[in-house]
Design goal:
Elements lengths: L1 E3 L12 E3 L7 E3 L4 E4 L8 E4 L22 H17 L19 E6 L3 H14 L6 E4 L6 E2 L1 H18 L3 E9 L5 E8 L3 E5 L5 E2 L3 H6 L14 E2 H5 L13 E2 L10 H4 L5 E4 L4 H17 L4 E5 L8 H13 L4 E4 L14 E6 L21 E4 L16 H6 L4 E5 L11 H9 L4 H6 L4 E2 L3 E5 L10 H4 L8 H17 L3 H14 L4 H12 L3 H9 L12 H13 L3 H12 L6 H18 L2 H13 L5
Parallel strand pairs: 1-17, 6-7, 6-11, 8-12, 11-15, 16-17, 16-18, 18-19, 19-20
Antiparallel strand pairs: 2-3, 4-5, 9-10, 12-13, 14-21, 20-22
């Protein structure tokens, strides 16, 4: 595992917030809050206390809403509530239809918007790519907007979809008398056989709050933070095989943190994933990227970005970093409070987990940045998926626009401990589980604010490292270097040093970028062997990793050449990098002093003076 503490300004802190009553869905803020909620058909007992202090906010940035940590008591009660709920729910029996633990193509239902040709085209692309039967496609005439009212959700989506699923025998629902406050027909679920429900771009994303319905429901004991009926469409549809419950609040997820959920648990939850994004092409790429990664295996580097925000959140991410390092991935663990700086190495990013700021930033905003095929990414933030139509604001939509295969987010304020757990998500994926399994076994509650994007059948870690390195694996050359480095680390860990060295030399000879050279040179320099580092550095390809994602790697290479005693070679590398026309001002401001140092040490006075002049002419940084 590699460790780096990047420089940069602190992340903008968020005020501790408590949701206010009224027409607005945005939270109002108070310095501290202590609240209780009692059990109910869609509620669980919990106590919430916000911290009484926060870091000062930069004057230039407005405060952002923040997750309020839910007290550990809630999480301790969830397993008990799951068992009680399953025992008390009417209708379930051992003979009820049950979805498979791991969904297969025949078990997938695909929902598209019949009024949107792109939605239908995406659905059919997915059917063909995965071999899902045409009969599993349901197309409903739906609103074009991402946000719909509760009345629209009930009349145009919930009821028609329920009718279709019942008619096609995907769900077994015993009709009951009456309707709930939103007009949904009541039923007693007997079970379902839906392995996964896929929502295609064009299906609405979220349900707006309805204060009238909230007043109609008796929720006096529900905590103020949870006294809302705004929700993600996906989260609501996960309860389609559940008895009609209160609209406000959430439902404990019986699949949460269970590696092998039993039939009773699986019979209650419909696992929902979405193919969506800023464009139809980006949504389609979710499918293609997952299939490509399954063919040759997920390969690349992992970036884990901590935030130093307390006892919840950072430990999840640190656990994920350890899990990846234990499987010999190269991990950059950033422990600084700020998000990753733009100067962080991000070439071939296969896994990114981080927090906490409102919009995508750092190396991901560099021009033309792309994730590795099959990449998994998430950023913990309250409104990370408030819209999926924007490629620059928020996180979930921008991730898809930049090529990830799978990600999760929140459409409204979820509160920290009710979001997807990145450590549990990764743990399940590393066992070879599908995206659908991992998503719902890492999510504490249903009917709330979470969405998952990606092919539910995607298995990012199903291909072994040995299969990845096979000559016919189809692994792209720029990723093969990272797979070989992973194998080198594995061999070294197993005590097979000679074999590791032979493979490392082979990786160097066939490398298309400087990643192998930089890794080997760092190892030599850390052992005090500068002379041993030089052959690696000098042999690194001149055209290092292409595009913006490779700029930081090239800067790393130049810096190591200076450290190894070859400032002249470093100056040559700096000149090539600083000659990139698209190199942003903030990167020039960060790297010019290092280039000047190398040129001065090498006696390259002309280059040093030119770069000093360029640095002096740059606008001041933040």
């Amino acid at each position: 595992m590699s460790w780096k503490r990047p420089v940069g300004s602190a992340k903008p802190p968020a005020p501790r917030c408590r949701r206010r009553r009224g027409p607005s869905s945005r939270p109002s803020c108070s310095p501290a809050a202590r609240c209780w909620r009692t059990s109910g058909s869609r509620r669980s007992a919990a106590r919430c206390r916000t911290p009484t202090s926060a870091r000062p906010s930069p004057a230039a940035k407005p405060p952002r809403p923040e997750f309020i940590p839910v007290a550990p008591r809630l999480l301790r009660l969830l397993p008990f509530l799951r068992r009680c709920t399953l025992l008390l729910l009417p209708g379930w029996s051992a003979a009820a239809p049950i979805p498979p633990a791991a969904p297969a193509p025949a078990d997938v239902v695909v929902l598209a918007n019949a009024r949107d040709p792109e939605s239908l085209a995406l659905a059919r692309h997915y059917l063909a790519a995965r071999g899902v039967p045409e009969a599993n496609l349901v197309a409903l005439p739906l609103p074009a907007e991402e946000t719909i009212s509760r009345a629209q959700f009930t009349a145009e989506l919930w009821e028609p979809l329920t009718d279709w699923l019942r008619a096609q025998q995907w769900v077994d629902l015993l009709p009951m008398e009456g309707r709930d406050a939103a007009g949904r027909r009541r039923h007693a679920p007997q079970g379902h056989r839906i392995g996964a429900l896929v929502l295609c771009r064009g299906v609405p994303l979220k349900v707006a709050p309805d204060e009238g319905l909230l007043a109609a429901e008796a929720t006096p004991k529900l905590r103020a933070e949870f006294r809302t009926n705004q929700a993600a469409v996906d989260a609501e549809l996960s309860l389609i095989a559940w008895p009609v419950a209160l609209l406000a609040g959430f439902t404990p997820n019986p699949l949460f943190n269970r590696d092998q959920p039993g039939p009773a648990e699986r019979a209650r939850v419909v696992r929902v994933s979405r193919l969506d994004g800023p464009s139809a092409e980006a949504a389609r790429a979710l499918v293609d990227s997952a299939l490509a990664a399954e063919r040759h295996g997920l390969a690349g580097r992992a970036l884990i970005d901590l935030a130093q925000r307390g006892k919840v959140g950072d430990p999840w991410l640190a656990t994920a970093a350890r899990e990846l390092a234990a499987r010999d991935f190269e991990v950059l663990l950033d422990e600084a409070p700020a998000t990753l700086p733009a100067t962080a190495r991000a070439e071939a990013t296969a896994v990114y987990f981080g927090w906490y700021t409102g919009a995508i930033d750092g190396p991901f905003r560099l021009p033309g940045f792309r994730f590795a095929p099959g990449a998994i990414a998430l950023h913990i933030y309250s409104y990370s998926a408030a819209t999926l139509r924007d490629a620059e604001n928020g996180w979930t939509g921008p991730f898809v626009a930049r090529g990830v295969a799978a990600t999760v987010g929140n459409v409204y304020e979820p509160y920290l401990e009710l979001t997807h757990r990145p450590d549990l998500l990764l743990r399940r994926l590393l066992t070879g589980a599908t995206w659908a399994e991992a998503v719902f076994q890492s999510l504490p509650v249903l009917g709330w604010q979470a969405v998952a994007l990606g092919d539910p059948l995607y298995r990012p870690f199903a291909t072994s490292l040995e299969a990845q390195l096979a000559p016919d694996s189809g692994l792209p050359p720029e990723l093969r270097s990272h797979a070989r480095l992973r194998r080198v680390r594995e061999l070294a860990r197993l005590g097979r040093a000679a074999e590791a060295e032979r493979l490392l030399e082979r990786a160097r000879d066939e490398a298309t970028d400087a990643s192998v050279a930089v890794w080997a040179a760092r190892r030599e320099l850390a052992a005090g062997r500068a002379a041993g580092a030089l052959p690696w550095l000098l042999a690194a390809p001149v055209d290092a990793a292409g595009g913006a994602a490779g700029w930081a790697l090239r800067a790393d290479l130049a810096g190591l050449l200076t450290a190894a005693g070859r400032p002249d070679a470093a100056t040559t590398r700096w000149a090539a990098l600083l000659g990139e026309a698209q190199l942003p001002v903030d990167l020039r401001r960060s790297w010019l002093p290092r280039a000047i140092e190398a040129a001065t040490t090498a006696g390259e006075t002309v280059a040093a003076e030119r770069w000093r002049g360029e640095l002096a002419g740059l606008p001041p940084g933040n």
